[in-house]
Amino acid sequence: MLRTIRRGIDRSLLLDSAYMFLFEPDQSGEVVSLDCETNGFNAFVDDVVSIAAIKIRDSRLLTSQAFQAVLRQDSAMDVSAIKVHRLREKDVAGGRTIYEVLPEFLRFIGSRPLVGYWVSFDVRMLNKYLLSMLNIHLPNRLIDVSKLYYERKYGSAPPGTPIDLRYASILADLGLQELPQHDAFSDALGAAEMYMILRDMRQRGARIPRRTEPASVSGFPAG
Fold it and tell me: Are the C-beta atoms of 118 and 221 separated by less than 8 Å?
């Protein structure tokens, strides 16, 4: 309901009708796996330094058609962020600005649902640019693979069951190869593979085995 209200408000506030396609029903049947790397971890003040997006059509990953961009920004790199994504200021100095990249990115994703690991963080980062450029939030439906994983493994867990939602832990539990983490393309690819496996498990009603240990919760956004 809240998403429907937000979409209606954003549609009425859209500054450029050329982007009305974002609000039209998706006819492709595809979803897009998304990941953003940032120069910090505060969605209000930090910036996106790279974006990757991969379309998923049925059981196929369209990696040859993936969207990738390295972005130049004015603010300095946070040292802790550099340690995570390993992009230095000189690595992004030759990139385009976010406002040069956004039109191409928006046409790539269209109105398709967006898949990702803690994808709401990536979308929050993008929304601040969209608000200044088009006066809207991304209206696409979001599918978080950590929530799909939680449902398949912990949905009926009794009290005291440990909960581990870390990116690497989900990869391992699903038998997926661990790619270089905190690289936008690798993280988008990993999330896409998780999505396809978890979607298939959901359709079959399959669940992921779990252990019973003292209660704990772990998991964090990849940024």
Answer: yes
DSSP state of 107: H
Q: How many domains does the chain have?
A: 2
Burial class (CB in 10 A: 0-12, 13-18, 19+), 149: buried
Distances (CA, A) of 194 to 51, 113, 157: 19, 15, 21
Residue that is written with structure tokens 């919760």 in the block: 217
CATH of the domain at 38: 3.30.420.10
In a domain, 222, yes or no: no
- Across the chain, which has 223 residues, the per-10-residue mean pLDDT values are 90 97 97 93 88 96 96 64 52 79 98 97 96 97 98 91 93 91 91 98 94 55 48
- What domain range includes position 162? 145-216
